[in-house]
């Protein structure tokens, strides 16, 4: 454990843990669009920028992405100094030009007082900020179904050859963790569609409720050594079963005791 | 001796105080969370069973988690979910054979019993001691014979 100062407050942190984790623990609101604890930091969105300095730096300070900066002893961190806010405003300004229709970007920019971009608006801009959370999570889960494709202006996220990805199991983790809700999917009855691939939802054998896709359940049972029957009943019916069997044992105990 | 979470359905009256205590204890930003414990009558009219996570030794939820968001707390023995790591794929919800990993729709979080970090609130509030957190004693011989 080492001591660092964040916004004038002395706090304890683990040496080597990333600054952003410490800042988040203190419930300080630093915007971060490309950060997810499930995957390694990437430093793509640049919004988590903070100002750091030390006593012996003779008044010098520098700006670093807090999601990628490991804690050092005696660090002095400012999360909302004027210069940091100015940097964030510039980035928001650029984001607003590139993704003018994203409600999430608009809201964030508004918080920093950027209501209109000063750059030329890209009219056909989509909402993908290329943070790579979706692809990194997909890789971390072991599917490797999607990746960032193309470069420069046309870069985007897509499955190989833009066809339904064979490795996708329809777990929806990419879409649910996208900071701008760019990834489209549809859940209709027992059918789920994502990346143009159709999935059958696994229906509970008792009540018909659905939780995950059949393909995802098969993947888990195959690779994680979980009996497939576990997936065939939904959580509510499982609880009913549990109460029934625990109730039976309790009834025997009651009888035996009386 | 380590404390264990002991459920004794014979004493449960189905008052659902545990449910309320759990919801309050797991509030998010001042809004009550979904309860991790479920008092159900299990189809038997005279018996209520508070269904809560059994903290399985070989837990299906831990096995199902592809991003290692579920880990066992070595001090309490409870399987704890790290909400920051969780990607909400619902694998644990589907995998738990006791139905004790849940999806809190209001807050959009996956939740499960974490024994309140070693001091379960439900056990503290249970008026009939159907829920207790105490050193574990093995069942008496008398019952088995
Ligand atoms: S969260 Fe640090 S750069 Fe995006």
Topology:
The complex is a heterodimer of chains A (258) and B (145).
Chain A: E1 2-6, E2 9-13, H1 19-25, E3 49-53, E4 62-65, E5 76-78, H2 82-98, H3 103-111, H4 133-140, E6 147-149, E7 156-158, H5 173-176, E8 185-188, E9 191-194, E10 197-203, E11 210-213, H6 214-223, H7 229-232, H8 235-257
Parallel strand pairs in A: 1-5
Antiparallel strand pairs in A: 1-2, 3-4, 3-5, 6-7, 8-9, 9-10, 10-11
Chain B: E1 3-7, H1 17-25, E2 38-40, E3 49-51, H2 60-64, E4 70-72, E5 79-81, H3 91-95, E6 101-104, E7 109-112, H4 121-125, E8 131-135, H5 141-144
FE2/S2 (inorganic) cluster is lined by residues 32-35, 43-48, 65, 67 of chain A.
Account of the 3D structure:
The complex is a heterodimer of chains A (258) and B (145). Chain A has 258 residues and is α+β, with helices and mostly antiparallel strands. Chain A has two domains: 2-111, Ubiquitin-like (UB roll), CATH 3.10.20.740; 133-239, no CATH class. Helix content of chain A is 32%, strand content 18%. Chain A has eight helices and eleven strands. Chain A has helices at 19-25, 82-98, 103-111, 133-140, 173-176, 214-223, 229-232, 235-257, and strands spanning 2-6, 9-13, 49-53, 62-65, 76-78, 147-149, 156-158, 185-188, 191-194, 197-203, 210-213. In chain A, strands 2-1-5-3-4 form a five-stranded mixed beta sheet, sandwiched between helices. In chain A, strands 8-9-10-11 form a four-stranded antiparallel beta sheet. In chain B, the strands form four sheets. Chain B has a two-stranded antiparallel ribbon. In chain B, strands 2-3 form a two-stranded antiparallel sheet. The model of chain B has no long low-confidence stretch (mean pLDDT 87). Helices cover 19% and strands 21% of the residues of chain B. Chain B contains five helices and eight strands. Chain B has a single domain (3-130), classed as Alpha-Beta Plaits, CATH 3.30.70.20. Chain B is α+β, with helices and mostly antiparallel strands. Classes of the chains: A alpha+beta (258), B alpha+beta (145). Chains A and B meet through helix 6 and helix 8 of A and helix 2 and helix 3 of B. Bound molecules: FE2/S2 (inorganic) cluster. The site of FE2/S2 (inorganic) cluster has 12 residues of chain A, from loops.
């Amino acid at each position: 454990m080492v001591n660092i100062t964040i916004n004038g407050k002395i706090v304890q942190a683990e040496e080597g843990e990333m600054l952003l984790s410490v800042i988040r623990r203190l419930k300080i609101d630093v915007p971060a669009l490309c950060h997810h604890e499930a995957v390694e930091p990437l430093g793509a969105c640049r919004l988590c920028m903070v100002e750091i300095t030390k006593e012996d730096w003779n008044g010098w300070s520098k700006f670093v992405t807090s999601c990628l900066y490991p804690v050092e002893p005696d660090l002095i961190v400012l999360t909302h100094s004027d210069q940091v806010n100015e940097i964030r405003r510039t980035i928001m300004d650029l984001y607003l030009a590139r993704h003018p229709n994203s409600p999430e970007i608009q809201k964030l920019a508004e918080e920093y007082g950027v209501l209109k971009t000063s750059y030329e608006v890209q009219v056909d801009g989509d909402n993908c900020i290329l943070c790579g959370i979706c692809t990194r999570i997909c890789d971390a889960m072991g599917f490797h179904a999607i990746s960032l494709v193309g470069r420069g202006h046309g870069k985007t996220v897509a499955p190989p050859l833009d066809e339904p990805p064979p490795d996708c199991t329809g777990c929806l983790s990419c879409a649910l963790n996208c900071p701008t809700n760019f990834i489209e999917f549809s859940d209709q009855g027992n059918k789920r569609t994502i990346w143009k691939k159709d999935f059958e939802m696994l229906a509970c054998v008792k009540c018909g409720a659905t939780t995950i896709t059949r393909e995802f359940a098969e993947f888990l049972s195959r690779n994680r050594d979980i009996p497939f029957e576990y997936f065939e009943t939904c959580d509510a019916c499982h609880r009913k079963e549990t109460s029934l069997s625990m109730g039976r044992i309790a009834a025997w105990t009651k009888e035996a005791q009386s | 001796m380590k404390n264990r979470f002991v459920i004794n359905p014979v004493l449960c009256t189905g008052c659902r105080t545990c449910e309320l205590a759990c919801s309050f204890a797991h509030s998010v930003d001042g809004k009550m969370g979904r309860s991790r414990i479920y008092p159900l009558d299990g189809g038997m009219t005279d018996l209520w069973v508070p269904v809560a996570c059994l903290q399985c030794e070989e837990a299906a939820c831990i096995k199902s988690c592809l991003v290692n968001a579920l880990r066992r707390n070595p001090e309490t023995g409870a399987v704890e979910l790290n909400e920051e790591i969780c990607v909400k794929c619902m694998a644990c919800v589907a995998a738990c054979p006791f139905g004790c990993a849940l999806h809190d729709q209001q807050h959009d979080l996956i939740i499960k019993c974490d024994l309140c970090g070693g001091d379960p609130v439900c056990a503290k509030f249970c008026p009939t001691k159907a829920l207790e957190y105490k050193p574990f004693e093995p069942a008496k011989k008398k019952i088995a014979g």
